[in-house]
Design brief:
The structure is a single chain. The protein is an alpha/beta fold. 48% of the residues lie in helices and 16% in strands. It contains 16 helices and 17 strands. The strands form six sheets. Strands 2-1-3-4-5 form a five-stranded mixed β-sheet, sandwiched between helices. It has a three-stranded mixed β-sheet with strand order 12-16-17. A three-stranded antiparallel β-sheet has the order 13-14-15.
Length: 575
């Protein structure tokens, strides 16, 4: 009788599977966890209409996650180590544009985090589609384990995906909850506005906020209320916002933004002072809130992005008369309105017909600076009509901060007319070039040498950049092979790639700059010869040109009193 073979045929695939099981049984996995906690943007409103209980404070969420990790490590072989805690306070769950969450994702990409723990799915996000995309696609692709403690959801536990449908339903409920809450929050906000509650951010300058029952109301700030009244009176008196700003600056009164931070109405002695400007005065005298009116609901924030603000039509604004104590009376407010109308009419009447007086090229654009603060001088161009009816365009230059009371960088007014500046330069050129005007050949020869030398320097720099790009490309190949052969961790490889990309971007910017300078040098050769011809024509005082200014002059410094300092670029050109 034939014997039956008891040999068992095992395939190579079966051996591999069995080996993997043994490794999983013997090996212990280790996770670096980041705990994420979020608290909604309008917690006061939520407590009133959607009470979430005491378990959703940021620290409570962190404690729940930490307790879960402690219990897990005590009961399982796999280890979870909490290496980061990420808190988003005052952030909506309807989108993932949150500071702490973005830091968490950056640490995941760097390999510092491979496990994310939240108290429940609603703390992670209330947008069903985006939350599902992270949990089901992004995290698995990055090799990240996701745990929602209260929902019993853990992508790292075998069999946990049987609860996938339940988690999807939970996410969908969260999404519907967010939309429902958004609608009810908007309705509640509108209701509070109609009741006269101030629902804006920090109270406007001159007021402070307080609670009257459940309504947030405004009352005069004893430190700044009188300053607001003085601003209105001074505007009626001077009919000029800048004059009012100068008046406040000479007395070192803190502007609204600085006052909110420091609580000091006046700048302390010796402290740096950042003063008022025309715009800050304009915002105060055009704000109806100082006459006791409350106008709210002018804009709304879209749910997709909190930074996107949509302005509503005026008919949708919520207006409340006598909502709080006014800082100015009706008579003063009416005077301000009349002055504003007068300024508007006066501005419209100042229009000049300038078709026959076009604005000429600014030949001093790149060389003219304030000698006191170093700021570039600003051109002022206007049309002047003479007694004979003829119009002429007049140009002048001034330092925009010179004589301003807002800063002490340039304490005195600094300005000069184009005619006065040209007269000074003509005289200076005549003296400076008196011994060189006949040496046109020397200038031309030097120009050719100078252009060739600079072109060679730029060519060598471009070659260096090309070599560095090539070296980085070769190095990237080596690093990738080291990573694939497990000689380099993913964390190290990601950090290297981030550094390499930044370096390549920096080299690309340098290359673009050098190429631009090379093209400019080609044009400079032609412009240089034009400048030589312009320089020769100075014998007859014909004109100053932009080519002449930029070729022979490095900088022109203007000082108060029409004093001029010229820094030439040719000092080492001709012996």
């Amino acid at each position: 009788m034939a014997r039956t073979s008891k040999r068992i045929h095992v395939s190579q695939n079966d051996i591999a599977i069995q080996g993997d099981r043994q490794v999983k049984q013997q090996g212990v996995k280790s996770y670096k966890a980041g705990i994420y906690a979020r608290l909604s943007s309008d917690q006061t409103l939520k407590k009133r209409e959607f009470p979430e209980g005491p378990n959703n404070s940021l620290e409570t969420q962190i404690e729940i996650a930490e307790k879960y990790v402690e219990d897990w490590n005590r009961q399982h072989k796999d280890r979870i180590e909490v290496v980061g805690r990420y808190r988003d306070l005052g952030k909506t769950g309807t989108n993932f544009d949150r500071d702490a969450f973005q830091r968490l994702m950056q640490d995941i990409r760097l390999g510092d985090i491979n496990c994310v723990i939240v108290k429940d799915l609603s703390r992670f996000g209330r947008n069903y589609l985006e939350a599902g995309n992270y949990i089901e696609k992004i995290f698995p692709f990055l090799g990240v384990r996701f745990i929602a403690v209260a929902d019993g959801f853990d992508t790292g536990v075998e069999g946990s995906h049987t609860g996938q449908i339940a988690s999807e339903i939970k996410n969908l409920v969260n999404d519907m909850y967010a939309k429902d809450f958004s609608a009810k929050a908007k309705l509640s906000l509108k209701q509070r506005r109609e009741e006269g509650s101030y629902v804006g951010g920090p109270p406007p300058y001159g007021y402070e906020a307080y609670m009257e029952g459940r309504l947030r109301k405004l009352r005069p700030d004893r430190n700044t209320a009188e300053i607001v009244r003085m601003i209105y009176r001074k505007f009626v008196e001077t009919e000029n916002c800048k004059a009012v700003a100068d008046y406040l600056n000479t007395r070192r009164i803190q502007p609204p933004a600085i006052y909110k931070k420091s609580g000091e109405a006046y700048c302390p002695p010796g402290a740096p002072y950042h003063g008022w400007n025309r715009g800050s005065i304009q915002r105060i005298i055009t704000n109806d809130i100082y006459s006791g009116k409350l106008v709210q609901g002018k804009s709304a924030i879209t749910a997709k992005k909190e930074q996107n603000r949509v302005w509503k039509p005026e008919k949708e604004w919520v207006r409340i008369e006598d909502a709080h104590e006014p800082l100015i009376d009706a008579s003063l407010h009416e005077q301000v309105v009349q002055v504003q109308e007068k300024i508007k009419e006066r501005t419209l009447s100042h229009n000049h017909h300038t078709e026959d007086c076009p604005i000429e090229e600014n030949i001093f654009d790149k060389v003219l600076y304030c000698g006191v603060c170093g700021k570039k001088m600003t051109r002022h161009s206007y049309v002047k009509e003479g007694m004979d009816g003829r119009k002429r365009r007049m140009d002048g230059y001034f330092c925009s901060v010179g004589g301003s009371s807002k800063t002490d960088r340039c304490p005195n007014a600094n300005r000069i007319s184009k005619i006065a500046l040209e007269n000074v330069l003509f005289s200076l050129f005549e003296t400076e070039f008196s011994t060189h005007l006949k040496k046109q050949k020397d200038y031309v020869e030097w120009g050719h040498v100078f252009i060739q030398q600079k072109t060679r320097e730029l060519y060598l720099k471009l070659r260096q950049i090309e070599k560095q790009n090539q070296a980085l490309s070769e190095e990237e190949g080596r690093k990738y092979m080291e990573y694939r052969s497990e000689k380099m961790t993913q964390e190290e490889y990601v950090k290297y790639r981030l550094w390499k990309d930044e370096r390549l971007e920096e080299l690309a910017k340098q290359k673009a700059q050098y190429e631009k300078r090379t093209k400019n040098l080609e044009r400079q050769g032609e412009n240089y010869l034009k400048a030589i011809r312009s320089l020769v024509r100075l014998k007859n005082k014909e004109t100053l040109t932009k080519d002449l200014m930029e070729t022979f002059i490095d900088k022109i410094y203007i000082y108060p009193g029409k004093r001029v300092e010229v820094i030439f670029t040719y000092s080492e050109r001709v012996d």
